[in-house]
Amino acid sequence: MLKTKVLDTNVLLDRPVDQILSSISPCKIVIPLAVVNELDQFKGLEDSPGFCARQAIRFLDSLRPDLHKGVRLPSGHIITVEVNHVNVDLPEFLVKNHTDTRMLAITKGLQKSEEVSLVTQDICVRIMADALGIPAENYVVEKVDIDRLYRGWDRLDITDKEVQNLYEKGWFIPGKQYTANQYLILRDSAGGEHYGRYRINNGDGIVRLIKKETHAFGISPAEDNEEQVFLMDALLDPDIHLVSVLGPAGTGKTLLALAAGLQQVVNLRRYDKLVVTRELIPHGRDIGALPGTKHEKISAWMGAVFDNLQYLVRNFSTGKYDDKSTPVEKVERFLEEGFVELEALTYIRGRSIPNQWILVDEAQNLTKENIKTIITRAGRGTKIVVTGDIQQIDNCRLTAYNNGLVTVIDRFRGQEIYAHISLRKSERSILAGLGVELLP
Known about the structure:
Elements: E1 4-7, H1 9-12, H2 17-23, E2 28-32, H3 33-42, H4 48-62, E3 71-72, E4 78-82, H5 99-110, E5 116-119, H6 123-131, E6 136-137, E7 153-157, H7 160-168, E8 171-172, E9 183-187, E10 193-201, E11 204-209, H8 226-236, E12 242-246, H9 253-267, E13 274-278, H10 294-301, H11 303-313, H12 327-336, E14 340-344, E15 357-360, H13 368-375, E16 383-388, H14 404-412, E17 418-422, H15 430-438
Parallel strand pairs: 1-2, 1-5, 2-4, 5-6, 7-9, 12-16, 12-17, 13-14, 13-15, 15-16
Antiparallel strand pairs: 3-4, 8-11, 9-10, 10-11
């Protein structure tokens, strides 16, 4: 017999209803009529609770006309909307027409014939339920464990013979199989470490040596940061057409991607242009429409990109007048001469983009459809770099499980033209590193 769970309004406002169902084992889910009435009050809000309210209302509407009987879903859940149990005895001081009181009454009424619990994020309601002998539980979804995601690299102990082959031939055949373009920290018998990348060569898996010392546009990986070494190798390899980078703030995702892009666009002329794009989603309350041209509007959203570009071009010089130019002027010159283009995701659809380096920043705010739109725009000779931090999602429609960045990692893993690196170590400052570690 299925257990019964009565859902509070705050549960339905926490995340889209399909994600709520996937986080709860098959059971009978009861939604009080008073909760439906409260959802109606939230549906007009342009924020995450408003979006979730609209999703829940549309979901319930799709189950009519049998909601009062109970509708069984393919997932095994049974959904029903329950009216108030008016005959349930509750203390007189509880306001009868209050949503909390009605939820308590319904749960207590169902308790007589079913194994039921009230699911709510309201701590006071849980306390009242306990005082009335009503089972209650908090609704908490386990956070994504980043360490469980594919990180793009691993460790491997190697023999002296393999070390010899690594440096004489530049490669060796490992004793086990890895994912295509997975990076490896190779530890020899003396405790020394070497870096390699697993590649498929004529159907066989081999580990090729990669250099520890590398740089792009004056930037090198931070000292003792092997993950940045791996990332730089993937960014600079023209045989890798798609790179994804996952990491918290300050790990160098955007800086290294821009440096590698400028190196291959400006210095090596391997690509025609560096295109930087992102979804224009505000963090916090939106300030409304911005004045100016398209370039001026987009620039307001690209502050972090401009900061990194100005840092990278500060020592760049192409002529006798560059010493007098400020970093801001140098960036503007790159934009004017077409080396760098800033583009809103809105304008990507419909384009065919050949022989360009495309950086998709803040990709955790992209949907699966968004990321598909970008990747399918890639023409011959184009490379795409996708960066993001799934702990900082501003798109109310997305979670750490269903965003575009995680979709890329999941779907492209194992492809010979794809590489992924997860960065963990913050290089921005001690304060930034502690912020990532201590603030959930």
